[in-house]
Amino acid sequence: MSAKTRVPTAINGGPYGQAWSAKADCLQSITGLILGVFLLFHMHFEASILLGKETFFHMVQFLEGSMFSSTDHGFPIVTKIISVIMLVIVAVHAATALRRFPTQLGQWRAMRGFMSSIKHKDTQLWFWQMITGFLLFFLVSAHLATMILNPEIGPHLSAERVYHDNAWLLYVVFLPIVLFHGIVGLYRVILKWGVSSNRPLIRTIAHVLIVYLLCLGTLSLVTYINIGMELVLPVQPFIPN
């Protein structure tokens, strides 16, 4: 047997290849689960602005460790550290997912032909999750890079970033893509690891969650834009009463 035929066998069909594939599957699911759960919490944290500037301000201070500060103010470095950690998790998740990404024109044609002949909902979801995952690698990286370089968060500072720095242009595209990818990812993890076998129920819950979070995120974004429109430059940090 030539080296040309021996290498693919060792990588794809041999024990080492199978062991790596199993570990990569597990790692992809774990990182995807972490990112999906983080997305759920993050969406509701951002939506606290709907309850008023003071509510959002105190939420930020609490999450940044205000209970450990003598001034009752949080530490922005906490946001930076969390952003770095999430960026690492995103990179690991992307690396383990890329092994399933078609890299040749023939693979794309075969996949599209298969999807055209077999109308399977989960296969369609997997395809669009793959596309959104590719887009998110750039969108999430841009979002997290912003938070790492400028971790200051607050009703006025966040609104300034959204409106005056035109971050809303990113978020309008980012929001539906990350929600679809994240919730469908959680749906697939639940089914893959046998948490539930009730596929129709889990799919319905996923659809409801996507619509609910899309409405919640849109309202939050509009609120930040409205606050930003009222701000006078240079923007001063919000000070609660």
From TrEMBL:
<keyword id="KW-0812">Transmembrane</keyword>
<keyword id="KW-0408">Iron</keyword>
<dbReference type="InterPro" id="IPR000701">
    <property type="entry name" value="SuccDH_FuR_B_TM-su"/>
</dbReference>
<feature type="transmembrane region" description="Helical">
    <location>
        <begin position="26"/>
        <end position="45"/>
    </location>
</feature>
<feature type="transmembrane region" description="Helical">
    <location>
        <begin position="77"/>
        <end position="98"/>
    </location>
</feature>
<dbReference type="Pfam" id="PF01127">
    <property type="entry name" value="Sdh_cyt"/>
</dbReference>
<dbReference type="GO" id="GO:0006099">
    <property type="term" value="P:tricarboxylic acid cycle"/>
</dbReference>
<comment type="function">
    <text>Membrane-anchoring subunit of succinate dehydrogenase (SDH).</text>
</comment>
<feature type="transmembrane region" description="Helical">
    <location>
        <begin position="168"/>
        <end position="189"/>
    </location>
</feature>
<dbReference type="InterPro" id="IPR004224">
    <property type="entry name" value="Fum_red_B_TM"/>
</dbReference>
<dbReference type="GO" id="GO:0016020">
    <property type="term" value="C:membrane"/>
</dbReference>
<protein>
    <submittedName>
        <fullName>Fumarate reductase cytochrome b subunit</fullName>
    </submittedName>
</protein>
<feature type="binding site" description="axial binding residue">
    <location>
        <position position="93"/>
    </location>
    <ligand>
        <name>heme b</name>
    </ligand>
</feature>
<keyword id="KW-0349">Heme</keyword>
<dbReference type="InterPro" id="IPR034804">
    <property type="entry name" value="SQR/QFR_C/D"/>
</dbReference>
<feature type="binding site" description="axial binding residue">
    <location>
        <position position="143"/>
    </location>
    <ligand>
        <name>heme b</name>
    </ligand>
</feature>
<feature type="binding site" description="axial binding residue">
    <location>
        <position position="181"/>
    </location>
    <ligand>
        <name>heme b</name>
    </ligand>
</feature>
<feature type="transmembrane region" description="Helical">
    <location>
        <begin position="125"/>
        <end position="148"/>
    </location>
</feature>
<keyword id="KW-1133">Transmembrane helix</keyword>
<keyword id="KW-0479">Metal-binding</keyword>
<feature type="binding site" description="axial binding residue">
    <location>
        <position position="42"/>
    </location>
    <ligand>
        <name>heme b</name>
    </ligand>
</feature>
<dbReference type="GO" id="GO:0046872">
    <property type="term" value="F:metal ion binding"/>
</dbReference>
<feature type="transmembrane region" description="Helical">
    <location>
        <begin position="201"/>
        <end position="227"/>
    </location>
</feature>
<keyword id="KW-0472">Membrane</keyword>
